[in-house]
Amino acid sequence: MASPDGTLVLASTSPQRRAILEQLRIPFDVVAPDYTEHGDDPVEHAAGKARSVDGGERPVLGVDTVVVCDRAVLGKPANASDAERMLELLSGRTHDVVSGLCLRTPAWEELHRDVTRVTFRLLTPRDIAVYVAAAEWEGRAGSYAIQGFGANLVERIDGDYLNVVGLPAALLVRLLAERFAGTYGFG
Question: Could you say which architecture CATH assigns to the domain 8-179?
């Protein structure tokens, strides 16, 4: 059961996730998760984040995203050199943006994985240097932000664009429509 006002709890401090929820007009409160990530499984991390937050009777949303290219998992780069290495790997290739999503209440828990395929254009050393110098890679899985200057790196996308931004919105809307028909304006 949702809270009387329909507010959900976002177990994340990500500004991109907040912006997407605002765009979808889903009321929410932010609570920083108390969870340390180990390993590369975004579903496990989403669940850990959501389970670390007490939402009372309100639904709690946890999300984690990684980029996967040729079985290599690309998280957030440690520094500019690491960002450059990741962008070189992605150049001219197709990769997966994989998000784990956990939506839970005290009575139930939904765990899901969503994948969006993204193809980068062939990047020159100059393209990479200009993008790295812009510092948009900081704190971004795979070293890029598709919703910003990083859009110039992308040739094609197959799947949920907002998943690449940071939250698998189509999946979340479907779950909210199924679990809370009408509460959030869906279903």
Answer: Alpha-Beta Complex (3.90)
